[in-house]
Design a protein that fits this description.
The structure holds 2 protein chains of 2 kinds. Chain A is mainly β. Helices cover 0% and strands 48% of the residues of chain A. Chain A contains no helices and 11 strands. In chain A, the strands form 2 sheets. In chain A, strands 2, 4, 5, 6, 9, 10 and 11 form a 7-stranded mixed sheet that branches. A 4-stranded antiparallel sheet of chain A has the order 1-3-8-7, with no helix packed on it. Chain A is globular, with a radius of gyration of 13 Å. Chain B has no helices and 10 strands. The interface between A and B is medium-sized, with 21 and 26 residues.
Chain lengths: 120, 107
Amino acid sequence: EVQLVESGGGLVQPGGSLRLSCAASGFSFSDYWMTWVRQAPGKGLEWVANIKQESGEIYYVNSVRGRFTISRDNAKNSVYLQMDSLRVEDTGVYYCARDKIVGPAHFDFWGQGTQVTVSS
Amino acid sequence: DIHVTQSPSSLSASVGDRVTITCRASQHINNYLNWYQHKPGEAPRLLIYASSTLQTGVPSRFSGVGSGTDFTLTITSLQTEDFATYYCQKSDSIPLTFGGGTKVQIK
């Protein structure tokens, strides 16, 4: 059974940092791209970043580029999101999801999400 | 960047109704369009990818069509468990933008 479990969320002040983790199981992790998606309170889904199987390609949405860093450790079946210079507007639920092997992106398995709150 | 506009933003329907949700891209994206279902407190669920391919395990009452700029998700005979918010997502290029969502509510 495919499982994705996020952790690392919490309350942080503006300008602070958090590191989210996503532990994967039930599939060959190193075969897949992985992605992070977030949902601000009362808003829709927003794609944040994704990373290729061996980290050779990484992409970000403009609003987080330069502040967030996605990474992965295939030996630990985990993907991470280092979030620096956090802003109030980064508040939301952060989901990790399994992305494609090849071809166009589509997110077929998702975690339950971890809450990030940026507030003073 | 290519924008994705979903309509309507919400709708009310009854069990057994046929429901149609539309997604329009600001530029041609071939068939690179996915659909997701999201219920409060749950993980989003992939319904359809590449415009019309039904994800494994998704009931056949869900279907998708479209290519280029205009896409449609149809739910034939709406069931109780289908009341949720639906999102389209473009997958042709970065950024992998989602539509604004369509909340399907009970009439």
